[in-house]
Amino acid sequence: MFTRCPNCDATQAVTVGQLRQQRGLLTCDICGQRFDGLADLSDDASQARVRANNLTKTVAKPEWPGFSVWKSASVVAFVTLLGQVFYFESENLYRSSAVAAAWQRLCGMVACQPPIYKSDRELSVSHTDLQRQSDNSYLFSAAITNHADFSQEGTVLRLTLLGFNGQAIAERAFSLPQLAGVAVLKPDQTLPIRLHIAAPGAQVGGYVFKLS
Q: What residues contact residue 10 under an 8 Å CB cut-off, 6+ apart?
C-alpha cells in the first residue's frame, strides 16, 4: 500500500504492520514530517498522487489584490492623511514662511483663497510709551513692525495696566485696525500706534503688552 505526505507531497510505501504499530502515524522518508498515513491510503502509488492532486485543486487559493488596487488604496490613504494634517494643523503649518509661499503659489494656480498668514514671532512693538493726560486718561504710543515676508492681519495687542503693587488694574485688547488704522500689515512695514485709554480706578504704576 501507499500513502502521501501532506507536507512535501511525497508518495511513500507502507505496510499494514507499520500502520498498526504506529497507530496510523508515519514519518516521511523525504522531509521527516510526522503525518496521518491513513488519510491518503491507496493500493498503488498512482492513486495516491491522483488523490493528492485532487486535494490540491479543491483548496481555494486566496486571491490577492493586484498592484493597481494597492496603488490606488495607498494614494487614497495618503491624500486622506494629508487632508487631516492640513485640516487640523493648517494654522500652525501656515506660520512657516516656506509653507505659506507654497500655499500661495498653489492657490494662485487653482484660484483658491489661502489662509491668513500669522506669526507673532515676526511682529514687534517698539518705542513704547504710556503718558498720563490731564483728564487722568492715558495715551499709549508705540510702533508695530511686520518682519515677515508676507502680509499679516488679525493681529491683536493686549495691554494690561498695573498698579504700584504689580497687580493688574485694567486690561484692553486692540485689533489691528484699532492699533494702526489698517487691516493688513505689509512685509517690513512699520506703523505708529496711538491708543487712548480711559482713566482707570487706581493709579497706574506700569504696564505690559502682548501680541496675539
A: 4, 28, 29, 30, 31
Closest CA to 184 of 116, 114, 129, 128: 116
Note the pLDDT of residue 162.
Answer: 93
pLDDT tens digit sequence for 10-63: 887 878 777 777 777 778 888 888 878 777 777 765 655 555 455 544 444 556
Confidence of residue 133 (pLDDT cuts 50, 70, 90): very high
Q: What is the pTM of this model?
A: 0.48
- Is 120-211 a CATH 2.60.40.10 domain? yes
pLDDT for res 58: 47
Query: What is the C-alpha separation between 116 and 111, in angstroms, rounded?
Result: 15
**How many beta carbons lie within 10 A of that of residue 193, not counting itself?**
21
Task: Please report, for the chain, the start and end positions of each structural domain, with discontinuous segments joined by +.
Answer: 2-58, 67-110, 120-211
What span, in angstroms and rounded, lies between the C-alpha atoms of 20 and 145? 97
